[in-house]
Design a protein that fits this description.
Distance between the termini: 50 Å
Largest sheet: 22 strands, antiparallel, barrel
Oligomer: single chain
Strand content: 35-45%
Structural class: mainly beta
Radius of gyration: 30 Å
């Protein structure tokens, strides 16, 4: 090699130290974990294969590896050991490995496998395996940073042009190898060599948190992720909103193996975090099927399309061709409820020597929790009020009435899941695919309907309520989720690749209301059918199918990538179809039997005894009529172009451009620029600037119904029932008000960060971000009569007491900081891994507006968007989240300790209350009884921490005494804790134990 060519190679090698792309996710192909980065070329192609995080050097493993090229042999080694192996593809493919059959330790196996090559196996201080040239100077044996390229939705690896073995040796001698391993222990959770922050959360790291839900696992390990709880909020009880960086659930894109994931069919209509949005069901994929989760914390709409404003969450499924595990976990809360049993089974199967099928089964049964306060108001008529507000019981039944009438907490839930992931080498490429299926049954409770609730518990001709002791309606939901994907990917000799795939996903939810009545039907039975009060009580139906919703997504992708000498290029196209349906409920669930066009049918027939006009539809959760049925679809076509080049040494510039055309609002073009400057080997600056968008969801476009919502009475401060209609923008009512169609949200993202490798074992990253969103889609306040004549007329014709609409009505600004620091060391006779991660974020609504020229233009904007609507966006999620975790491993013992701080948050609900910051402590201890069998015990929220008790927006408050002045009950209300927003819930300490067998 002459000096000129050697100088050129060294110069190119130095540039590889930098960040190589703007938005990065990882993609599994042919059992090879490629780091896939949108907008970049792979400077030096590396493979990282991972299932477990550490090397078990003394354990004997049975091998069956034929003699073949070294890169393929190492891939087979990683599959058979389920072990992370890091190696240079360009280096390894220059050699041929020996055959390997029989039982070996992992290091002995590698020595035999690579015995006739110049390659050597090295174990670093964290127990991770890497393959290097034997002559490497290991004085500074760090792992090389991995970078690559991806197309927008379907990432594809581009291997850099090989310079031969001599060039690889020069690279090693230049000491530029610093690989951050994908899917390793928490030490490698934040990828350092990217222009934007990415958290890599391995299966082991997720399991160490002791949670049984993926949403809770993510919340406990990634501070930028929130998974808020609420109660008595209809479907939101069963499907919680998941958010990133304090934005909405629909402003985070979720992928499975790099493929766009469909959203849940539900839209959060009630007053909770994410009100007016539709997100993704994070719990539909069982944790036992997950190999790792990657959280990209930056806007990525220019790469991945709509929704990727706050970031991208990519769930990577397990892909092992052998081995597996069976696990059982049992736990309950300190209050003795919420008993949970979780069963997992995972097994990999080989398809000859060219493919695999990996299958996971999961069953989870979670009993409900209840943290409701006592029912302090009168349940029967006849109470009188003293001067101090104390109630004196009149009806003798009041003295013995049950005061535990509400159920406020987690829903009763049973879930079954099946996940299949597969791949098979065919020709020069690979066929791949996956199937995910889950079904979940939930039961949550609505508001209790007491005897004196005449509108919801009809008074009959004997002057007593239909259900004399009152009733607690139950909302039963069945959520079915299925998706499947298949594709073919091939690579060419000229460093190009082509990927064609099809993905289908569907989520459906069916609502059935039980332990309820249609109050108006009792009047129908009395006046129309002539039934006695006793017969009405005996025959009135107590259950009905309310309605169903279905949302599906079909995506066809074609992606091409090409690596050139001085730049790389990725381009592709996507055709997508969204479908949304609302299925009508049974007549009993939605019909008002005693009213016709707003006029009471039985007016004057009661003789002064009993009810003449009661509420229509099933109490607690009403049905949807045929008039509200929906069957709509939308087509989307997209094209993208990614490019990357070196502008100067150690500085890389990446760019992306994406065009999307939506049936409905038209087209949009978005861009992204990102760069990295490696100032030194240990300090790098990263930054990105991009535009983005979020198309209106199908639910925001087409959801419509009339439901009972409990809102705060302005006079009493208590919650009262109100019939609220949600009207789609193309409805007759909305059109009569001149409300326009929804358009896309538009965003501008800016980020700037620094990565500092303090030592070989200490890493720090700090990132600032700013996200401006214009024309944000929000749901309006419940607009009642008296605001404008046109609105009054529209509401009267619809039969609703109030109406709400989806509007492009707000501009918001979000700023925040992400911080991650890791330290891996040895101590106490074992290894210690420390991680400190924090997120500080603040969102401000900077502008509110109503559609120009519409009937709402004359309504004050503060009436269209209430203070509560603004508060939901700005304040209902914690201002900061801080996690400090320590992982200790020694011999057969593993101990994980985490401190999770949830910062202050404020809820507006008939008043304002700021809830103080709380620190929750989680601990898990795991012990390997044998090489295959382990047992664990742990606690989440070990010290039984609860949020501050609720002082606003309560219900059923009061003190009741008997005729002698003896107190029957005194209660501040049933909502002891805020039912609107509870970032870590309000269940208290959860204790569990489990066992796992690996095979």
């Amino acid at each position: 090699m002459n000096m000129q060519s050697k100088k050129y190679i060294n110069k190119k090698n130095k540039t590889y130290r930098g960040f190589l792309f703007a938005n990065c996710l990882y993609k599994l192909r042919s059992n090879q974990t490629h780091l896939l980065c949108s907008l970049s070329v792979l400077a030096s192609a590396f493979f990282s294969l991972n299932v477990l995080a550490t090397v078990t050097t003394g354990q004997m493993v049975q091998f069956d590896i034929k003699a073949q090229r070294a890169d393929k042999a190492l891939i087979e080694f990683a599959k058979q050991t389920e072990q992370t192996v890091v190696f240079s593809y360009e280096l390894a493919k220059q050699y041929n490995a020996n055959s390997l059959y029989g039982f070996y330790t992992q290091l002995d196996a590698l020595e035999a496998l690579l015995g006739d090559t110049k390659l050597d196996a090295v174990v670093d201080q964290n127990g991770l395996l890497s393959i290097k040239l034997k002559q490497i100077n290991r004085k500074n044996n760090n792992m090389m940073k991995l970078s690559g390229v991806s197309a927008a939705i379907l990432p594809a690896l581009l291997a850099a042009n090989t310079q031969g073995v001599n060039a690889a040796e020069d690279v090693a001698q230049e000491k530029i190898e610093k690989i951050a391993i994908v899917g390793s222990r928490v030490a490698g959770r934040s990828v350092e060599d990217l222009p934007v922050p990415v958290d890599i959360l391995s299966a082991e790291a997720l399991e160490n948190k002791g949670q049984t839900e993926v949403g809770r696992m993510l919340q406990s390990i990634a501070p930028s992720f929130n998974f808020s709880s609420s109660s008595i909020s209809d479907g939101t009880d069963a499907l919680r909103p998941a958010t990133l960086r304090g934005l909405g659930p629909d402003q985070t894109l979720v992928l499975i193996n790099g493929k766009r994931r469909h959203q849940a069919s539900i839209i959060h209509i009630n007053t909770s975090v994410g009100r007016g949005t539709a997100g993704t069901d994070m719990n539909a994929i069982p944790a036992s099927a997950i190999k790792r989760i990657e959280v990209l914390r930056d806007g990525a709409a220019a790469q991945y399309g709509s929704d990727a404003i706050a970031g991208v969450i990519n769930i990577v499924l397990k892909d092992g061709s052998e081995g597996g595990k069976a696990a059982i976990n049992y736990g309950q809360y300190s209050e003795g409820d919420g008993e949970t049993i979780n069963l997992d089974f995972n097994k990999g199967f080989a398809l000859g020597d060219k493919g695999y099928v990996n299958t996971t089964l999961n069953y989870r049964d979670r009993a409900p929790t209840n943290r409701a306060g006592l029912h302090g108001s009168c349940q029967f008529n006849g109470c009188t009020t003293l001067d101090d507000g104390t109630l004196v019981a009149g009806d003798p039944r009041e003295l013995t009435a049950d005061r535990d009438t509400f159920r406020i907490g987690d829903a009763d839930s049973q879930q079954f899941g099946l996940i299949v992931s597969t791949g098979y080498e065919l020709g020069d490429g690979e066929l791949y695919g996956f199937i995910t299926y889950s079904t979940r049954d939930n039961e949550s409770a609505a508001f209790f309907r007491h005897n004196a609730n005449g509108g919801g518990n009809t008074v009959l001709q004997d002057n007593d309520a239909t259900i004399q002791a009152g009733f607690l309606p139950k909302i039963n939901t069945t959520i079915d989720d299925i998706s499947y994907n298949f594709g073919y990917k091939t690579q060419f000799d000229n460093d190009a690749s082509l990927d064609l795939s099809y993905t289908y996903g569907e989520n459906s939810i069916d609502y059935t209301t039980s332990d309820t009545i249609n109050a108006s039907y009792a009047n129908f039975l009395r006046y129309d059918q002539g039934l006695s009060a006793a017969d009405i009580r005996a025959t009135i139906p107590r259950e009905a199918y309310a309605y169903g919703m279905e949302l599906s997504l079909q995506t066809l992708n074609l992606d091409f990538t090409q690596n050139f000498d001085d730049y790389s290029l990725a381009m592709g196209a996507e055709i997508r179809t969204d479908e949304y349906r609302i299925l009508e409920g049974s007549e009993y669930a939605y019909r008002d039997y005693d009213t016709n066009n707003g006029v009471s049918i039985y007016d004057g027939l009661s003789g002064g005894v009993g009810s003449e006009d009661a509420s229509g539809g099933t109490q607690g959760f009403g049905g949807s009529s045929p008039m509200s049925s929906v069957d709509e679809s939308r087509d989307v076509i997209s094209f993208y172009l990614d490019a990357e080049t070196y502008i100067i040494e150690d500085v890389i510039l990446s760019g992306a451009l994406r065009y999307d055309n939506y049936k409905g609002f038209g087209d949009t073009v978005n861009f992204k620029l990102a760069g990295n400057w490696s100032i030194t080997d240990d300090i790098s600056l990263r930054g990105a600037l991009s535009s983005g968008f979020r198309a209106p969801s199908m639910q925001q476009l087409y959801f419509n119904n009339i439901s009972t919502q409990f809102v705060v009475d302005d006079v009493t401060g208590n919650l009262v029932a109100e019939e609220v209609g949600t009207f789609r923008n193309d409805s007759t009512l909305a059109q009569s008000l001149g409300i326009p169609k929804l358009t896309e949200e538009k965003s501008q993202n800016r980020s700037l960060g620094i990565v500092y490798n303090v030592t070989d074992n200490i890493n720090v990253t700090l990132d600032y971000y700013s996200i401006d969103i214009d024309d944000r889609i929000v749901i309006s306040n419940r607009l009642g009569k008296g605001l404008s004549p046109s609105l009054d007329a529209a509401l009267i014709s619809s039969g609703a007491g109030a109406g709400q609409f989806f509007l492009n009505g707000a501009d918001t600004e979000t700023q925040g900081i992400d911080f991650v620091a890791t330290w891996n060391t040895e101590g106490l006779g074992g290894t210690l891994d420390f991680t400190l991660a924090a997120n500080f974020t603040k969102t401000d609504v900077v502008s509110l507006f109503t559609p120009a020229g519409s009937g709402l233009e004359t309504v004050p904007v503060e009436d269209v968007f209430s203070d509560q609507e603004i508060s939901i966006i700005e304040e209902w999620q914690p201002e900061d989240r801080i996690n400090l975790s320590a992982l200790y491993q020694r011999d057969d013992w593993t101990v994980n300790l985490s401190l999770n701080r949830f910062g202050e948050y404020t809820v507006e609900d008939g008043g304002r209350q700021t809830y103080g910051a709380e620190i929750l402590t989680d601990v898990k201890v795991n012990y390997f009884v044998t090489e295959n069998l382990s047992v664990n015990i742990g606690a989440n929220n070990l010290f039984d921490v609860y949020p501050d008790e609720n002082t606003i927006g309560n219900s059923r408050t009061g003190t009741i005494v008997d005729a002698q002045g003896n107190t029957i009950v005194s209660s501040p209300g049933v909502f002891k804790y805020s039912r609107r927003s509870a970032p870590f819930g309000f269940n208290g300490a959860y204790y569990y134990l489990g066992a796992e067998y690996r095979f």
